[in-house]
Amino acid sequence: MVRIYLAILALAVFFWLLRGFLSRPPEVVARYIKLIIAVFIGLVLLYLGATGKLNWLLAFLGILVAALTRFVPALLYYAPALQKLWFMFKSGKQSSEARHYSRSSNAAMSVEEAYEILGLKQGATRQDIIAAHRKLMQKLHPDRGGSGYLSSKINQAKDLLLKYVA
Questions:
Q1: What is the pLDDT of residue 58?
Q2: In this structure, how many other beta carbons lie within 10 angstroms of the beta carbon of residue 45?
Q3: Cα(105)–Cα(10) distance, integer angstroms
C-alpha cells in the first residue's frame, strides 16, 4: 500500500514540475533539458562503473578511436565538400551555391565574352541571338538538370547582346 502512495506522490510531483517546466521560455527549457540529460548520463556511468559493467563502453570507445584514426585521411580529403554541405545545411533558406551564382552573375561581361558564351560570331542578328539562347537554355536550364550558374550567364549574355544589336 505504501508503494501505491509513493507512486501517486511521484506522479503528482512529476506533473507539478512538468507544468512549471513548460511555462518557462524555450531557451530556459532547452538549457534544463541539456542539464537533465547530462546528469542522467553521469549517473548511469557512475552506476555502471560502480557495478563493474562499464567494460562494453570502454571496448566501444576503443573501436571508435581505431575507426576514426583509420578514416581521418578520408575525412580530410572530403573536408571542403563536407564544409560546403554543412554551410548549406546551416543557411537553410539559400544555398551557398545560389549565393555564389548570384554574386558572380553580377560581374560585368564583355561583348566578346557574351558572343563566346552563346557560340556566335561578331555581327550576329537578333534572331541568331534568340535562337542560340533558346537552344542553350533547352540543354542547360536548371529545371532540366542543368546548372543555375550557366543559365544565368547565358541569360546575361543574351541581354547584353540584344542591347547592342537593337
A1: 86
A2: 12
A3: 64
User: Grid coordinates representing 36?
Assistant: 537533465
Sign of the CA dihedral 143, 149, 151, 155? positive
Q: Which amino acid is at 130?
A: I
CB 151 within 8 A of CB 143: no
* Cβ atoms of residues 154 and 136 within 8 Å: yes
Torsion, Cα 55 57 62 65, to 10 degrees, reads -170
Rounded to the nearest angstrom, the gap between the alpha carbon of residue 13 and the centroid of all alpha carbons in its chain is 41
How deeply is 81 buried, as exposed, middle or buried, from its count of CB atoms within 10 A (0-12, 13-18, 19+)?
Answer: exposed
Task: Give the start-end residues of each E strand in the chain.
Answer: none
Residue 137 neighbours by CB under 8 Å, 6+ apart: 151, 154, 155
**Mean pLDDT, consecutive 10-residue segments, the chain of 166 residues?**
90 85 82 91 92 89 92 84 80 54 61 88 89 89 83 90 81
Residue 90: C-alpha distances to residues 87, 142, 164 (Å):
5, 23, 42
Sign of the torsion angle spanned by Cα atoms 37, 42, 43, 49: positive
Non-local (6+) Cβ contacts of 151 within 8 A are 137, 140, 141, 142
